[in-house]
Design a protein that fits this description.
- It is a single chain.
- α1 runs parallel beside α2 and α3 (119-133) packs parallel to α4 (206-224).
- The protein has nine helices and 23 strands.
- Strands 1, 2, 3, 4, 5, 6 and 7 form a seven-stranded mixed β-sheet that branches.
- By secondary structure, the protein is of the alpha+beta class.
- The chain binds zinc ion.
- The site of zinc ion has 3 residues, from loops.
Length: 485
């Protein structure tokens, strides 16, 4: 098969294409299970395989994909035909940033392939969790598992040949309770890098999930009898799960270069960031350093090589508060440099990814991480907070269409008064303007508070591509934030 692919790549090149690549998926398997109030509500398994071809011809892309790989010539010719048609309507001829030819192999750190684990074992885990969640105060409960295992072979006309074997594991416990007024409240726990340091079935640690099941049941019961969240301005201390979503929505998506160039306007798809801002814009306080790091071990945002065939990198996005980088692929960096009439970006940052063989790669977050700070652990940060809210787990979110403002409700919040963590409050929320908010960042937790949160379902693109990624995040505190509205 590999020889046939290489032969076709060469043939299309000889027909006038300036670049050709192929992503061949020998297989992609996924398995999802949800137990809801003690019943196995969902259990599905999918398997697909096929091949996707991108052809660059006279500055235009053509794409074609098929699960039928018995006649490769048809798929490649179709991609070339599509590029030829598109070439008649080119407004900005596509160029690709230089890269090295790579021969490589990448495998996610995984010992036990979760797809191979018998169904009965997976259901037994969910039943065990369901029992732990089935407690007074809990109105609805759910436990779910989601696994992906895939092999991808990448071949391009510039001499690269990369084979990847990716394993993904996601797990979630969630609860709903109803208070005396009939209002619903939620608590949840999802697997992050406090589990085992690899991505196989072994990361589903029953003890870890049991402890957290007990914790969220207890917290839900505190919420049900809590007083409402105050409405005022105060500090907010965001725990890692909430801070991960904050980072995702108002740093990660805002710094995708296709969005900055105006290509991705659905799903609140614009960005307030402009090409002039790089190297100049003060995005946050000096305590804010953010990187796109695809080299983190054990994260869904670590994949070895992107779908342009670029090796995983660790790139600064925001350095001590100043915007310095973006999430980029080979195509967009060339267009951005050309439009800005100066070299803002020096090659691709290796973040072009597609979710399936039949989708084209677009700029996606890798692991968008915040560097740990020097403000101690959670206890230290609370002790140094006069009046605040300690918040975790997003319950609802709405974001400005250019990521310039946001409003988030969280599942839980505790009052912080005079350096002490006090009682839980009901229906907590906070809002702000992105730049004002990050400039009010006043404390960043140390390395002991840093945790990688796994994101199973980041949506982008049309047709939609649901991508997996990560956020390595410390505990963060912001001052003078509007809360409770
Ligand atoms: Zn997203």
């Amino acid at each position: 098969m590999l020889d046939k692919i290489k032969q076709q790549v060469e043939l299309i090149k000889n027909k006038g294409a300036t670049y050709v690549d192929t992503r061949w998926y020998p297989f992609e398997e996924s398995n999802s299970l949800t137990m809801w109030n003690g019943n196995l509500k969902e259990s599905f398994f999918t398997r697909e395989s096929g091949l996707g071809v991108r052809v660059l011809y006279k500055g235009a892309w053509g794409f074609s994909a098929s699960s039928d790989v018995s006649n490769l010539e048809v798929i490649y010719d179709k991609a070339l035909d599509n590029a030829r048609v598109a070439a008649q309507r080119v407004t900005f001829p596509i160029r690709l940033a230089e890269k090295d030819a790579i021969q490589a192999h990448f495998t996610s750190p995984s010992r036990i392939n979760p797809i191979d684990v018998p169904l009965v074992e997976k259901v037994a885990f969910l039943q065990e969790m369901d029992k732990k969640l089935d407690q007074p105060g809990v109105f609805q409960r759910a436990a779910s598992l989601n696994f992906i295992h895939k092999q991808i072979v990448f071949v391009d006309s510039e001499g690269s040949e990369i084979e990847k074997e990716i394993t993904e594991v996601f797990a979630l416990l969630s609860l709903i309770g109803v208070d005396a007024q009939g209002e619903t409240h939620e608590r949840s726990f999802s697997l992050g890098q406090e589990g085992k340091a690899s991505r196989g079935w072994e990361s589903i640690d029953p003890q870890l999930f049991s402890e957290n099941a007990e914790r969220i049941v207890g917290e839900l019961n505190q919420i049900l009898v809590a007083d409402p969240c105050p409405k005022d301005h105060r500090s907010v201390i965001l725990l890692q799960d909430m801070m991960a979503l904050q980072t995702h929505e108002t740093i990660g998506h805002a710094l995708e270069l296709d969005r900055i160039l105006g290509y991705e306007l659905s799903y609140a798809g614009g960005s307030f960031v402009t090409l002039d801002d790089f190297g100049r814009l003060r995005y946050g306080s000096e305590k804010l350093t953010v990187r796109a790091d695809a080299t983190v071990p054990n994260s869904p945002g670590s994949f070895g090589y992107d779908d342009d065939g670029i090796q995983a990198q660790d790139n600064l996005l925001i350095n001590k508060g100043i915007l310095v980088g973006a999430i980029t692929g080979r195509q967009m960096v060339e267009e951005a440099n050309a439009r800005a009439r100066k070299q803002i970006f020096n090659g691709s940052s290796g973040a072009n990814r597609a979710t399936a063989f039949y989708r084209v790669p677009i700029e996606r977050m890798t692991n968008i991480n915040i560097d740990p700070g020097t403000d101690g652990n959670l206890d230290d940060i609370i002790a140094n907070t006069e009046r605040g809210l300690l918040m975790d787990n997003a319950r609802s979110w709405s974001i400005g269409s250019n990521r310039e403002q946001f409003h988030f409700a969280t599942e839980i919040a505790w009052l912080v008064e005079d350096g002490q963590k006090k009682q839980v409050v009901k229906n907590p929320s906070y809002m702000g303007n992105t730049l004002e908010f990050y400039n009010s960042l006043s404390a960043v937790g140390d390395k002991t508070t840093w945790m990688v949160n796994f994101v199973a379902n980041c949506g982008k693109g049309q047709p939609n591509q649901v991508m997996q990624l990560g956020h390595g995040i410390p505990i963060c505190r912001f001052d003078n934030v509007r809360v409770g509205e």
